[in-house]
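Readers of this paper often ask what the protein records in our data store actually look like. An entry from our holdings is shown next, in its original layout:
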Amino acid sequence: MKSSLLTLFLSFVSLNCSVGAELRVYPQEIRLHSTEATQTVVVQELQSDRVMTQVVSGVVLRIEHSDIAKVEGNKVYPLKNGETSLIATRGEVSIRVPVKVTGQQQEFRWSFRNHVESVLSKAGCNGGACHGARAGQNGFRLTLFGFDLAADYSYLTRQARGRRIVPSDPGRSLLLTKPTGALPHKGGVRLDVNEVEYRVLAEWIAAGAPGPADEDPVIERLEVLPPLAMQQVGVSQQLVVMAHFSDGHVEDVTRWSKYTSVDLNVATVGEHGKVQFVGPGEGAIKVWYLNLNALSFNTVPFNDQLVNGDSIQENNFIDEIVNRKL
């Protein structure tokens, strides 16, 4: 009887913790620094200061001042310079996240260092199996994973009689006709003319294909959100990747990053950072953008409950770490 009452009590507590769980929004501050800036947002359950699974239903996102920014799905877009708040609401629980919009009256240009290279990396163009190979492919070479910006810029703009880049008519550039399939390409279709990756390259070419400059901001830190979370088998998690640059601005680079799972028995990950948890254990997702990488750690508990017993004797510091996890 006592066991049954205890089980009922624990079930009641667990249910109420889920219903009354607090929320946390990632990122916890939104800064949109240009007309092209966007911000991916995720909402997580928070129980006893522990980040839990992503909340994917029952959450309403809205912008306090709709003339400064707008929210569509899980993305925030800038409209005009100013400060406002993103408000996330589920039931009677609401969280406010500060939003600051700048640079809306300035012309924006894509950077070879920080945008063009990231598109080429995401598409796999500078990988070891493609043009990043030591000898390149079909006469076109890029440095492996873009490690030499000056060399890549020269390969793109100075070789092949300038046909890879055609500023007067970007759509005729080999850099666009080959990966979109308009011309035969051994590597297959890598770009979609309707997606932003194509627009980045086309607008960069139309602007005169400016090369890397000394005054370009340089990435200093890569951050993956949430950095650590307790998950469940069968749920999914959208990661948010933030690049911190030397001039102080921060960019949402979730779309431009590359993802790999450290343990496929625990989690798999899609090309845009959506993680699916498939089994119990501890796993991590490795995220790569430009020349930096970072990890997002996740714990997926087993369904079996631990049976209380005698304390485990600690013989060394490893035993201490294991006991803390148990």
